[in-house]
């Protein structure tokens, strides 16, 4: 009977809004003082019926008299607390974050994620140290692994922790075990982009000016008689100059570096395609598009609109992130009509980028350009899907109408 009453008391409606739960303290069981408040409220409501049952508790008998009521309440609270703590003990708890304990310093051991070999033991780490600070400490013992090369994880196969993550907020014990992976030699993003984009600009111009050893001696430094060839050169150069300037003055990247090996892959892609496209477009035997000036004008309009759109989206993304920060927000349309595509897709800059290349393909009517558009579209769709997924995961109020790259379709 007593246990039944205790259960009723415990399930009595909460008299006020619950206090925020503290991690690592039994989670769903709530805090002790809340239980007490609920028990007290229950006692007053259950009144004499509850009191009748208390008389049957042997341990409470000595408390009859003027102090009996408060003794009953204390005993009841103690029992509730004991039941709660035994329920909590019976569950296997997750390691509590460090801030749930009065720790003044923590220890961090760093193991190799592949071999589990202990690489480093850091004693007396401040509980509020960030992962970036732990990386700096690790570098002191292993200078070959500078911070940008390091990936630290809670799980050997899990995701990398962010530099700004704080040790005491992580679900680790007083000795935190972190797993290390070497990301390989790193290079700054700006260097990567500049190399990737300066290459196509320069390579295209070599073909446009027909430098020696490309088309045969008699064509050296000759010029095409087709207007579209000159227009194509202007469009291509404009596109890459724009990208270079955006890399330097517009984008606010959140990652400082990327693996060095990526530069070889990316440059092969951009430089290779630029050379292949330029070779055919600037070839002395090149023939202009089937529908002549009309086709070129239409293509130029598509190209210009998409370039403006792409630039507008880059500006909108830049304005989302205060200088020097890594904040990510949901992008919304602004007063600029080119940004209204944000109503329908998550990555309109990719949509406009693909549009520009389709425009360029129509203008030049050149197969390598069409292939470059297709490969770029495939790659950007993969990235757009990834970005779309992370928006959905990160923001619960993410606009449901949006698709990754193509409105209503993809
Ligand atoms: N032709 C091709 O094959 C091809 C392929 C890829 C890209 N591109 C061109 O290169 C451009 C840049 O590519 P990207 O992949 O770097 O584009 P992106 O991921 O959309 O990023 C553009 C810039 O905006 C920032 N950003 C993105 N979403 C943000 C958000 N929600 N809040 C705050 N900042 C945000 C990015 O920072 P983070 O550093 O945090 O990402 C980055 O600095 C593209 O728009 C496209 O024109 C061309």
Explain the overall architecture.
The chain has about 400 residues and is an alpha+beta fold. It folds into 3 domains: about 1-15 and about 30-80, no CATH class; about 105-185, Phosphatidylinositol 3-kinase Catalytic Subunit, Chain A, domain 1 (Ubiquitin-like (UB roll), Roll), CATH 3.10.20.90; about 185-395, no CATH class. About 50% of the residues lie in helices and about 10% in strands. The chain has 10 helices and 6 strands. The strands form 2 sheets. Strands 2-1-4-3 form a 4-stranded mixed β-sheet, covered by helices on one side. Strands 5-6 form a two-stranded antiparallel ribbon. Strand 1 and strand 2 form a beta hairpin. It is elongated, with a radius of gyration of 33 Å. Its main location: endoplasmic reticulum. Its EC number is 1.3.1.93. Pathway: Lipid metabolism; sphingolipid metabolism; Lipid metabolism; fatty acid biosynthesis; Sphingolipid metabolism. It is a multi-pass membrane protein. It is found in: Endoplasmic reticulum membrane.
């Amino acid at each position: 009977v007593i246990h039944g009453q205790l259960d009723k008391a415990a399930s009595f409606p909460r008299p006020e809004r619950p206090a925020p739960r503290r991690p690592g303290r039994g989670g769903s069981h709530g805090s002790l003082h809340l239980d007490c408040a609920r028990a007290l409220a229950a006692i007053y409501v259950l009144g004499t019926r509850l009191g009748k049952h208390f008389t049957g508790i042997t341990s409470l008998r000595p408390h009859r008299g003027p102090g009996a009521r408060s003794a009953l309440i204390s005993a009841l609270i103690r029992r509730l607390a004991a039941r709660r703590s035994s329920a909590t003990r019976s569950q296997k708890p997750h390691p509590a974050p460090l801030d749930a304990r009065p720790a003044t310093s923590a220890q961090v051991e760093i193991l190799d994620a592949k071999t589990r070999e202990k690489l480093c033991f850091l004693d007396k780490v401040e509980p509020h140290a960030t992962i970036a600070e732990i990386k700096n400490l690790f570098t002191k013992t292993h200078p070959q692994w500078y911070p940008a090369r390091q990936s630290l994880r809670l799980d050997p196969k899990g995701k990398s922790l962010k530099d700004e993550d704080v040790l005491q907020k992580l679900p680790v014990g007083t000795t935190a075990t972190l797993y290390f992976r070497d990301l390989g030699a790193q290079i700054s993003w700006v260097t990567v982009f500049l190399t990737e984009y300066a290459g196509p600009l320069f390579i295209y111009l070599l073909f446009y000016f027909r430098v020696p050893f490309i088309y045969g001696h008699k064509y050296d430094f000759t010029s095409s008689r087709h207007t579209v060839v000159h227009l194509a050169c202007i469009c291509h150069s404009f596109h890459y100059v724009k990208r270079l300037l955006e890399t330097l003055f517009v984008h606010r990247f959140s990652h400082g570096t990327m693996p060095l090996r990526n530069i070889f892959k990316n440059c092969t892609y951009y430089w290779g395609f630029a050379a292949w496209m330029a070779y055919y477009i600037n070839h002395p035997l090149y023939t202009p598009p089937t529908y002549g000036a009309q086709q070129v004008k239409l293509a130029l309009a598509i190209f210009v609109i998409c370039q403006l759109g792409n630039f507008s989206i880059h500006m909108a993304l830049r304005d989302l992130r205060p200088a020097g920060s890594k904040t990510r927000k949901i992008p919304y349309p602004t007063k600029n009509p080119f940004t209204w595509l944000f109503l329908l897709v998550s990555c309109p800059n990719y949509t406009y980028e693909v549009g520009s290349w389709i425009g360029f393909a129509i203008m030049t009517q050149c197969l390598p350009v069409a292939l470059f558009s297709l490969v770029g579209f495939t790659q950007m769709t993969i990235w757009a899907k990834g970005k779309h997924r992370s928006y959905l995961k990160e923001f619960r109020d993410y606009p449901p109408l949006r698709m990754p790259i193509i409105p209503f379709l993809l």
